[in-house]
Amino acid sequence: MRLPRRGRRTTAAAAIVSLALAITVGTQASAAPAPDEGPKDTVPVQQYEVADLDTQAERTELARTGTPIDEVRASSVVITADAADATRLRDLGYELTALPGTAVERNDFQAAAPSDYHTYADVLTVVNQTRTQYPNLVTSRVIGRSYQGRDIIAVKVSANATVDEDEPEVLFTHNQHAREHLTVEMALYTLEELTTQYGTDPEITELLDTREVWLIPSVNPDGKVYDQESTGSFRSWRKNRQPNSGSTNVGTDINRNWNYQWGCCGGSSGSTGSETYRGPSPESAPETQVVANFVRGRVVGGEQQITSHIDFHTYSELVLWPYGYTYSDTAAGLTADDAAAFRALGTALADTNGYTPQQSSDLYITDGSINDWMWANQGIFSFTFEMYPRTASGGGFYPPGSVIDRETARNREAVLLLLDYADCPYRITGRESTYCA
């Protein structure tokens, strides 16, 4: 069965992706949160280039204002902000230049329309159809529900999917950030490729005979629906849709809400209006807790069955690994051997797709992230893939539907390589006898 591909359709009415989008963007000075100025769901935003940011420390200082960084350039960054936030940043001494027009217009791309991408309901339909067609290869289950009550599903793909076998497990998560719809397409591509090619492609057949694969297509279904379906055009929404106590602002950044070094190091915001708001406590977002509980539930006989993980995001074409909370290559729970294995495997993954490999904090400090938690708390080799485009000129968070097939297939070899090394990631540095005997 060929899954229905939304990306094959083109739409004449392009969505404006850099101007007049609704978003929650608040700022937090390093010393104190920004005041609650009321709900910002309908505030227009656009992208700006922020000049003279050459180092990790300078980029981190900007991030500590509560401003998420869309893209890192050689000596500047690109951010998305509303007019009030742009004014605050200028008052703090930052040099902002509004990017003229839209990224799509500058390069003759057609911005994606919401209909170019699978909806949340489409995803459930595709999973159910695939499970019906491949009952021995695919199972799925609801692992919990979002704040608004939508099912968060985990899909298992393996040669004997109905049985929990003693095989290395690999987890792929997608769509922590609502507007990153290309990541959901990545989940559906992986599901299709593994099922349709089993028994035909020798590599996929061997891997599914010896591995168990888990896909969570949408960690943040409420945010996805809100961004994609609520108005007929994209809203550039990032967070979940959970109300914040004592504030009219809505949403927690799920990828700053994980229970390792949460809020430790200026890599997230305590302001409810910020796009990087970390929540009032670790795992306060129900979506974070659902996925964390699922991962904890894969501990069998005292041993974590999941050995490897990719969390898919957009955009910038990067392969990232822990830690994000510190600039140091090694830290508590991350030895020189661990760091070498991350670096070697991350570089090998990037060699397959042309992404740039680096430690997460090489960009700027983040805390409470999924990668840091997966490794430090569960011992899972965890990577983030920032997918297409490399820059805003390719469509930013909303690349045109015409690139979906190409850009998801671009990660085929990386997915298979991670599955190959799932038995012992240290094998890539020749240390399997030490760590995987």
UniProtKB/TrEMBL annotation:
Signal peptide annotation: 1-31
Residues at the active site: 386
SMART domains hit by this protein: Zn_pept (SM00631)
Keyword Protease: yes
Region described as Disordered: 227-252
Gene3D superfamilies (UniProt xref): Zn peptidases
Cofactor(s) required, per the database record: Zn(2+)
Biased composition (Polar residues): 242-252
Stored PROSITE patterns: CARBOXYPEPT_ZN_1 (PS00132), CARBOXYPEPT_ZN_2 (PS00133), PEPTIDASE_M14 (PS52035)
Top-level taxon of the source organism: Bacteria
Keywords recorded for this protein, A-Z: Hydrolase, Metal-binding, Metalloprotease, Protease, Signal, Zinc
Domain Peptidase M14 span(s) in chain numbering: 116-422
PANTHER family: PROTEASE FAMILY M14 CARBOXYPEPTIDASE A,B, SLL0236 PROTEIN
Similarity annotation: Belongs to the peptidase M14 family.
Protein name, UniProt field: M14 family metallopeptidase
Species the sequence originates in: Streptomyces millisiae
